[in-house]
Write a structure and sequence with these properties.
Helix content is 48%, strand content 13%. By secondary structure, it is of the alpha/beta class. It is elongated, with a radius of gyration of 21 Å. Bound molecules: guanosine-5'-diphosphate. It is found in: Cytoplasm.
Length: 290
Amino acid sequence: MVLDDLGSSLRGALDGLRGKSRISEEDVQAVVKEIQRSLLQADVDVDLVMDLSDSIETRALEEEPPAGTSARDWVLRIVYEELVELVGESTELPLEPQTIVLAGLQGSGKTTSAAKIAWWFSKKGLRPAVIQTDTWRPGAYEQAEEMAERAEVDFYGDPDEDDAVKIAREGLEATADADVQIVDTAGRHALEDGLIDELEDIESVADPDHNLLVLDAAIGQEAKEQASRFEGAVGIDGVVITKLDGTAKGGGALAAVNETDSTIAFLGTGETVKDVERFEPSGFISRLLG
Ligand code: GDP
């Protein structure tokens, strides 16, 4: 981990260990306190922060640093390893034909993410298609069509059809030539039963390789409940965190990752189709702590 990426107060706390050969409880607590402050500010769930703190304290005080490793480097290594454990590895998405269903509440960024993910796969040499099944939100069809056009990927939708499951079925057939079929679903304002039922039906028609849950970086306490509902309905194996170009650092979404026992797949960093990054632990950790 590059030290410049750490917040200055955390760097200060680690510098307190400079030149020491033994690590005292106070030294570790000073470091842990700074990490806690940053993570809580980044909306990371308090229970996750406490678990991480306990792991860092226990390891730093009980494990023997390898010979030749300074106290400061040792604690830094433990901190980094535990932070990677917290945020997880990137969701595995092999570059091969697959079907992806996007789930999430309205406004979370599903339609935008569908086009972004399609664009990402197209840059990897695959042929993606976006299938728009959101019959609920006015303008969703036009928005999806326009974004798919900008991403230069195949698109299917039917603005005259109300039955989202039928659109999904027909869309999967119509885009059967595509390698990666990305099904965008309707999101509502809250976790209504209708939303969940429709999602379950689309999921059974699509039989996807991945169900990705799309979450706004600004999500807080609600992340856990949302994740558990979507997990219960279709099973979530990856999370997309959107709007990371704003002030929110996306730490709230980690509760959803924990709840669904999944990993983070993509990060959304702007409104255009190109504003997408594959999740990668060290960059995300720097963002959380910075
Ligand atoms: P949906 O209802 O879940 O399909 O959400 P949309 O894809 O329509 O996104 C809702 C709003 O958030 C739109 O105005 C998008 O332009 C915006 N949006 C989505 N992703 C991002 C992002 O990564 N950064 C920014 N700044 N805006 C985003």
